[in-house]
Amino acid sequence: MKILIVGAGQVGYFLSDRLSREGHEVTLVDRSEEKIQQAQDRLNVLGITGNGASAEILEQAGIETADIFIAVTDLDEINILACLLAREYRVETLVARTKSIEYTGNRAVLTKEKLGIDLLINPEDAVAEELVKIACSTGAFDVAEFAEGQIQFLGYRIGPENPLCNLTLADLGELRGIYRFVVVAISRGEETIIPCGDDEIQAGDRIYLFAHLKDLPSIQYMLHSGGAEPKPKNRRIFILGGGNIGKQVASGLENQSAVKLIEKNEQICLKLAGELERTLIIKADGSDIETLRDEGIESADAFIAVTDKDETNILTCLLARQQGVRRTLALVSRPELLVLASELGIDACISPRLAAAATILRFVRRGEIISLTAIEGSNSEVLEIEIKAGTGIIDTPLKDLHFPRGAIIGAIVRGSDYEIPTGLSRLQAADRVVIFALPEALAKIERFFA
């Protein structure tokens, strides 16, 4: 497909990289000559320097033959106008990133239907939803749901005291009679491994696993090395930052946890107090340890930092950890700080770039792929694909299929039942398979199931 992307920022660059790797013909437009040159040097894309909301520039970029148009600059107005221009050229699929609430809220005057845009994505909404999921999941730093929530994809950090530490994948096979799950990837430093039977889980690793929703309590109990976690209703959560993300996270958690939101701007505090029913609003600086101690930070189960400054989020999470908080979650926008924050001991770092990009990728690829999540730091993805009738892979043992290297099937869902697959498992029409795939296997996976 021919894909035209306007905006070479973090989201645009990520999408250009991922879609060009899959063999699509990608053209990237941005005002910054430096960003375009950098993209052309590193990616297999055509770069055009100019205003993405200019008909002349879009024609130069080949808008007349584009199949998909994606506008992800930092300015809502440019994205909307660029999509409206693309609509006039009869581009089939239009996607725009927006941050302004008037485009996406319940009282929006302009909606995607009125604008004729297929997808309006607000990164803040996607980030808030992900933070709520992770905060509600015991010990996990990454959470995604598949098959209407039946299958859970979870990422866990392995400490020296974790019961899985120093076990091989073959050893884990003996645990499956008690705990039904499968480890599909091990992230060690900058390397992501799809493990075999003799691969060993080591302290400091990040592991990714699939499990059924009903099996999660026992699996989480096994993986949690510090004793039983409090039930959701008893959790005590601190949120730093009263912006849109902080408000959404508080709203998503306040009915199941005791939530305290910290914000230093008095006007924002007053506004939040009128909008959040059960959240306690505290006017304070996130680095004011004395005030946080007075509010009981030392007994908090989670500290979530979502200010607009990465450095503040990382620093306050470290301070909260020092005060005894069980888990820390930070909003980190800059890719170069994500690995650093993780190495410093922050339990989960959420990237607005990746949350928005994953939503756009899922929409662009709709068809065989039902859902998708992208894994930060490895460019890997988890895909959910429905098996179509008439494909050559039906009713053949998995061990006899030439499944692409760099990918692994983690679960097969059949109606209301599911299985963790083995070499003898067979796929049937209408099955839904959930797959972990490294970057080099993504295009092959889509062809395999086509």
Structural description of this entry:
With 450 residues, the protein is of the alpha/beta class. It has helices at residues 10-21, 33-42, 55-60, 76-88, 101-104, 112-115, 123-136, 169-175, 216-223, 244-253, 266-275, 289-294, 310-322, 335-343, 352-364, 442-448, and strands spanning 2-6, 25-30, 46-49, 68-71, 93-97, 119-121, 142-146, 151-157, 181-188, 191-193, 206-212, 236-240, 258-263, 280-283, 302-305, 327-331, 348-350, 369-375, 380-386, 407-414, 417-419, 432-437. The strands form four sheets. A six-stranded parallel β-sheet has the order 3-2-1-4-5-6, sandwiched between helices. The chain has a six-stranded parallel β-sheet with strand order 14-13-12-15-16-17, with helices on both faces. Strand 2, helix 2 (33-42) and strand 3 (46-49) form a beta-alpha-beta unit. 43% of the residues are buried.
Query: In whole angstroms, how far apart are the ends?
Result: 16 Å
What structural class do the secondary elements suggest? alpha/beta
What is the overall pLDDT average? 86
CATH superfamily of the largest domain: NAD(P)-binding Rossmann-like Domain
Question: Which CATH architecture of the largest domain would you pick?
Answer: 3-Layer(aba) Sandwich
Strand content is: 25-35%
Short synopsis of the structure:
The protein contains 16 helices and 22 strands. It has 450 residues and is an alpha/beta fold. Helix 7 runs parallel beside helix 10 (244-253).
